[in-house]
Write a structure and sequence with these properties.
Length: 498
């Protein structure tokens, strides 16, 4: 116990720890923005490689499936092998996969490279969050560090749209993948020079049956939601994937109660506040990721924005997330309970979404879209920072990697589900509206645009409802107090850590 505290004190006294945070944040930004950076580039890649409309979704879902499905395994590998080592391995592998995707000559080669990116992202993301957790243990510094980390995690998707637009319009879609190589090289050099590793746990081993059941269940569910959009919710394959995913996850929970070295120790999820953070993150991201998709198509297809202008249109959202996370949540984290940030944040984000339900085919950006983006960004900033900080607080060192992975899994799987779920709602609503209102063939173009926007607004109403549900979950389940209060709950978590 004494050695652990001494090690933490020495690490906390390291004057280079904030440069270490830059390295960790850079790697996390690369992982998060890569989930969206190819969205704007997708039409160019599709034309260049001859990808069919039915298969183009795999450029996105190959990444999210591998990432979301393997995160728990990646977290446990970080615990067993060492966080710094897996961090560097993840960076090198991610860079190699990105180079492979940028050089793709066939659709299959691009899909495979994107899946490989997801595999290494699943190793990289939990080790990054674990390194952050062990590097900053002082409550005041921890709040600042997680504020920066949360801002990047929340705004990375929007930054991906901006960078994707710039690279696609002025260079080539392939640079949306090549750009990861220099970022990873810088991060590897910084990691080797600045980051400190924690001891590995000798004698521990991977829970292989748990990995198969857990990863298989998550992949089946995410794949089912991805296929629900083109196939429909009642398609036998979709229903079979849902049933199989639920069965595998049920078997996973059963096995975790009996495994000698469980992949996901259930005491991590049994903690009420931590479970509330996981669920809040998943629900909030469901609404947010779906909204990104609709706004991208609305700006380009309905308002005829260029890729660069579309990316720049998301800048206020990015700025608002950073302000909400670093200037509001980080400053209040040590003074108020996390749910007093998370629940109002969800309400604020939901109000922003409701404003977007007023969109029409001729809405203005400054009057109809900008205010909503600012409210949404501020609200998400108030959610991300306390979720990351609270979910990983007081976790035993040997479990920090898998806990970090669970947070990222909630975010990634929530984003995948949100995109598929809300896109299906939007498409169905648009088709029905167009069929009911297309009476004059001469008005087909206008009616089609009106129907598309109608579908978007219906789906955004659902997104707002899901965001409100995230706020309710945070208010009822996240009972942790402010760190400086030293409540029995926090003391119990601190005892587990030593």
């Amino acid at each position: 116990m004494t050695v652990t505290r001494t090690g933490e004190s020495a690490r906390e006294a390291d004057p280079r720890r904030w440069w270490g945070l830059v390295v960790i944040a850079l790697a996390q930004l690369m992982v998060v923005l890569d989930a969206t950076i190819v969205n704007i580039a997708l039409p160019s890649a599709q034309e260049d490689l001859g990808i069919s409309d039915g298969n183009r979704q795999w450029v996105i879902t190959a990444y999210t499936l591998a990432f979301g499905g393997l995160l728990l395994l990646g977290g446990r590998i970080a615990d067993l092998v060492g966080r710094k080592r897996t961090f560097v391995i993840g960076l090198v592998g991610f860079a190699a996969a990105s180079a492979l995707g940028g050089a793709a000559t066939t659709a299959g080669m691009l899909f495979g490279a994107r899946a490989l990116q997801g595999v290494f992202a699943a190793v990289l993301a939990p080790s990054a969050l674990s390194l952050l957790t062990t590097t900053f243990s002082d409550p005041k510094e921890r709040g600042k560090a997680f504020g920066i980390y949360g801002a990047l995690a929340g705004s990375g998707s929007a930054i991906g749209f901006i960078v994707g637009g710039l690279l696609t319009e002025y260079l080539d879609w392939r640079w949306c993948l090549y750009v990861n190589v220099p970022i990873a090289v810088i991060a590897v050099i910084g990691a080797l020079a600045l980051l400190h590793d924690s001891p590995t746990h000798e004698g521990a081993r991977l829970d292989v049956p748990g990995a198969v059941l857990g990863c298989g269940g998550l992949v089946a569910l995410v794949y089912g939601f991805a296929e629900a959009e083109p196939r429909g919710w009642t398609d036998p394959l979709v229903l079979g994937l849902f049933a199989g995913g639920i069965a595998l996850l049920t078997a996973f929970v059963w096995w975790q109660t009996r495994a000698p070295v469980p992949l996901l120790p259930l005491h991590i999820v049994k903690d009420r506040s931590r479970a509330g953070c996981f669920l809040t993150m998943a629900l909030a991201v469901i609404g947010m990721f779906g909204l990104f998709l609709f706004l991208t198509y609305y700006l380009q297809v309905i308002l005829d924005y260029s890729p660069v202008l579309t990316g720049l249109a998301f800048l206020p959202l990015t700025a608002a997330i950073i302000i909400g996370s670093t200037q509001i949540a980080a400053r209040l984290m040590n003074r108020v309970a996390p749910r007093l940030l998370m629940a109002p944040g969800a309400l604020l984000a939901a109000v922003g979404m409701v404003l977007l339900t007023r969109l029409t085919v001729d809405s203005s950006y400054s009057g109809d879209i900008l205010p909503a983006l600012i409210l949404l960004g501020l609200g998400m900033g108030l959610i991300f920072m306390p979720v990351f900080a609270t979910a990983t607080a007081g976790v035993a060192p040997q479990d920090s990697g898998v806990t970090s992975a669970t947070v990222n899994t909630a975010q990634q799987v929530g984003g995948s589900i949100g995109t598929a779920l809300l896109n299906t709602i939007a498409t169905t609503s648009s088709t029905a509206w167009i069929a009911a209102h297309l009476t004059d063939p001469a008005q087909r173009e206008l009616v089609t645009k009106q129907g598309i926007v109608h579908g978007y607004t219906v789906a955004i109403w659902w997104a707002a409802a899901i965001m409100l549900l995230a706020g309710v979950v945070a208010a009822l389940m996240v009972t942790a107090k402010a760190p400086r209060h030293g409540t029995p709950h926090q003391e119990q978590l601190a005892e587990r850590a030593v």
